[in-house]
Design brief:
The chain has about 250 residues and is of the alpha/beta class. Helices cover about 40% and strands about 15% of the residues. The chain has one domain: Aldolase class I (TIM Barrel), CATH 3.20.20.70. The chain contains 11 helices and 8 strands. Strands 1-2-3-4-5-6-7-8 form an 8-stranded parallel β-barrel, surrounded by 6 helices. Bound molecules: glyceraldehyde-3-phosphate.
């Protein structure tokens, strides 16, 4: 049985004050009816503040990217060891904004996954098709390519991994894949993983991301292969985020 997981991705938003306000508001609103694991990926500079505010038994903190390199002369980069050192549980890898705006490609992303797995930080590897790819019917080809880049590397540990499906056309747009449409892609991803390891595939948590809100979370999370969400905009609003967590 897979335990649901909801991760907030604050992207490049927030301040020291809002980090404290939002996380305190989430912690005080959470009740014992919430049974999912909850993570929040904050900007690097707020990780330590976020750790000090939250109880790891309630909210675990993560980062939004990581270097593929081991510590050394890489000005401006942050290593997986550093993330582990400051107590990160998660790191997002291959978010579409990283793929598109920072030209991060599959080969580099797989190295990042491996770097995270050398530490205790769990990579959340994100995949998803663009609007153009979606419209041209290329969704499954694109997803296959992105997932297989990972699966083809035998050093990748499928038991220390979370996957996230985020159709790029649904991110921050208010458009969402229908629950049935998202379920098809999630089932496809699980089937790809099961070709390498059926037990790992059954245990693997696959999150959906892309305009998840309190009013559509239940129908998305109700799908058999959707194990929670990766939440952007709504994770900056404590009430909305907790409401989403209640549905997972
Ligand atoms: O990482 C989160 C995704 O990019 C989804 O963002 P969104 O919920 O604002 O659409």
């Amino acid at each position: 049985m897979r335990r649901s997981l909801v991760i907030g991705n604050w992207k490049m938003n927030g301040s020291l004050d809002s980090t404290s306000e939002i996380l305190r508001a989430i912690e005080t609103t959470i009740d014992d009816k919430i049974t999912c694991d909850i993570g929040v990926c904050v900007p690097f500079v707020y990780i330590t503040a976020a750790q000090e505010i939250t109880k790891p038994t309630v909210i675990t903190i993560g980062a939004q990217t990581v270097s593929e390199y081991q510590p050394g002369a890489y000005t401006g980069e942050v290593s997986a060891h550093m993330l582990e050192d400051v107590g990160c549980s998660w790191v997002l890898i291959g978010h579409s904004e990283r793929r598109t705006l920072f030209n991060e490609a599959n080969a580099q992303l797989v190295k990042k996954v491996l770097a995270a797995q050398m530490t205790g930080v769990t990579p959340v590897y994100c995949v998803g098709e663009t609007q153009e790819e979606y419209k041209s019917g290329a969704t499954f080809d694109v997803i296959k390519d992105q997932v297989e880049a990972l699966l083809n590397n035998s050093a990748v540990d499928l038991t220390q991994l979370v996957l996230a499906y985020e159709p790029v056309w649904a991110i921050g747009t208010g458009l969402t894949a229908s629950p049935e449409e998202a379920q098809k892609v999630h089932a496809f991803i699980r089937a790809l993983v099961s070709e390498r390891d059926i037990n790992a595939a059954n245990m693997l948590r696959i999150l959906y991301g892309g305009s998840v809100k309190p009013d559509n979370a239940l129908s998305l999370f109700g799908q058999k292969d959707i194990d929670g969400g990766l939440i952007g905009g709504a994770s900056l609003d404590a009430k909305a985020f907790v409401s989403i967590c209640q549905k997972a």
